[in-house]
Every structure is written in C-alpha cells, then in structure tokens.
C-alpha cells in the first residue's frame, strides 16, 4: 500500500512524494485523509528553518516522532474517513469522519485513542480547526479573564482570531486587538473585538495607549503575533499587576525586550501558555477529554470554516507555503485537499 506525503527537506523546500505504508495491525485503524490544515505559525517556522532542530517535533503526539531537524514530516490537523480496521477492530469506526493529529499525508493508521470522531453535522472544513480552537481555549484558561477587565490581543492570525472570539463572549469592559493586516482586523471586529488597530501606525498606537491609559492600562494582554519584539508593546499596554500571556512560539527568533522599566516597577507578570499541557491547578478538572469536548462545542457555535481563505491540492504544497511565507496579508486558514499526486518538490 502507498500514500502521498509531504516532507520539509531544507529551509523553504518541501517535496510531495509517494511512499509505502503498512496495512493496519491489531489495534490500528486505517484512515483516508480528506483535508489537512496548515499552521501558519508553527509550520512556517519549520518551513523557514527557524524551528530548533534539536527539539522534539512534539512528544505529546505519537504521529510526530523524532526532532525538528530536516528532513521531516510535519503537520497536526488531519480530517479523514475510516476505511479499514486491523484484526479484531471495532466495526463501530467504519466510515466515520474523524480528526487526528497527523502530518500532511493522504492515508494514515492510528490507534483509537488517537482519533476524535467528528460530531454529527460538522463538516471536514470546520473540523480541521480543532487544534487551534483547543489552543484558544487553553489561552483563555491561562489568562483567566474576569468581568469588567480590559484585554488586548496582539496578533490576529487564526489562533488570535479564535482567542478573540472566545474572549468576546466574556463581559469585558474592553477588548482591543492589534494586527498589521487589515483583513484580519476586519475579521477581529466581526468576531468580537471592540476595536482592532494597526501596530505599525503611530496614530493607532497613540490612540490605544491613550484609550487604555485613561483606564490604568490593560489588565490582561495576549501576545500571539509570533514576533518577540511585540513583547515591548505588550508591556507598554499593560497596567499595574497585570498579566501578559505569551502564546507565541518564536522558535530561534530573538529580540531585545525592555524589562528594566515599567515591567519591574508595575509588577507585570509573564505567563507562558502552550497547548500540550494545562496549568497544574486546572489539570484535575480540565483533562484532555473535557478540553476537546469544549473545543468541539465552540467550533459549532463560531463556524470557523468561514476563515478558510485558500484550498490547495497537496501536490501544490510548495506554492501554498511560498504564499504564506511571502504574501500572508490576505491569508487566514490554508488547507490541503488530499488527492493522488505524483512526486513534486519546490524549486
């Protein structure tokens, strides 16, 4: 049996080739992938060669063994249909639409605990948002927004937009967002932000500082832009004893951050947030099952499939990554269709 799979082979180089795969063994389920979503944050770090090569790809995901060194298969948002079972497999799974944390490939085998049945009525296009919705939920849990608080979100990519959408359901006094691309700012307002501003605009930043300054600064700031230099902006917007939740993964990107002024005297807290784990004080109640069930409910309520901006066959993966690398201004969620493809590689 063979499948089509994508590999990152060097900075800004990908290939899509046919490779052999095993039939499902006892305890395994065979899935034909329909769609997979590209993470414009993590995957572009990998694509650019900015991910730490010595780091595990993701020790919490069985389908991503090994490190982030080239060459590697990567990706973690696949939706497909169950097509086969290993010996003594449960027939309940046959033909079910499922989600799994898998790299970009047309077929895969997985154990039942690696599969999440897609709720009835949910489309494959909505189901590929499950990882990012889980991330947004985790960010909200780590930030712990309270009624009447002033909240700012830096970065309105998919994770930023979904976080804004969840925060927009809280009784906040203010929810402001920043992003350099006007389509994202427009979506941000649609999803619940009271205002969305351009961080490159001195006028917008001045207006925002004045707006928050009259109120003592933001109580809670999320840094989700993927740009470590944005941490200075986060500190500048923060009020006394506020908290900054850093959900961005910067990889090998570095920036000089000013922690010698307001950050020290105003007792501002930096909180690291990452979706593979949950804060220890919440872990007893917010286990993986509860977090995933909650994420599915919010997918149903928010309809994130409307954030899909481009759809590529997997054989055009090189084009998709070049687009996200060189001209991301109009792109939100890019997804791959998994059809038969011959071997291709980026120039």
Which segments are poorly predicted (pLDDT under 50) over 5 or more consecutive residues? Answer: none
What is the assigned CATH homologous superfamily of the largest domain?
Medium-chain alcohol dehydrogenases, catalytic domain
Shape: globular
CATH class of the largest domain: Alpha Beta
Give the biggest beta sheet: 7 strands, mixed
User: What class, by secondary structure content?
Assistant: alpha/beta
CATH structural architecture of the largest domain: Alpha-Beta Complex
Helix content: 25-40%
Compute the CA-based radius of gyration. Answer: 21 Å
- Could you please say which CATH topology of the largest domain applies here? Quinone Oxidoreductase, Chain A, domain 1
Q: Figure out the total of helices.
A: 11
- Beta-strand segment tally: 16
Number of domain modules: 2
Rounded average pLDDT: 94
Work out the strand percent.
Answer: 25-35%
Distance between the termini: 29 Å
- Encode the helix/strand succession as letters: EEEHEEEEHHEHEHEHEHEHEHHEHEE
Structure description:
The protein has helices at residues 42-48, 124-127, 130-143, 158-167, 182-191, 202-213, 230-237, 262-265, 280-283, 288-302, 317-326; strands at 2-10, 13-20, 29-37, 78-85, 97-100, 107-110, 116-117, 150-154, 174-178, 195-197, 218-223, 238-246, 269-272, 308-313, 333-337, 344-345. It is α/β, with parallel strands linked by helices. Strands 3, 4, 5, 6, 7, 14 and 15 form a 7-stranded mixed sheet that branches. A 6-stranded parallel sheet has the order 10-9-8-11-12-13, sandwiched between helices. Helix 8 (262-265) links the parallel strand 12 and strand 13. The protein is globular, with a radius of gyration of 21 Å. The model has no long low-confidence stretch (mean pLDDT 94).
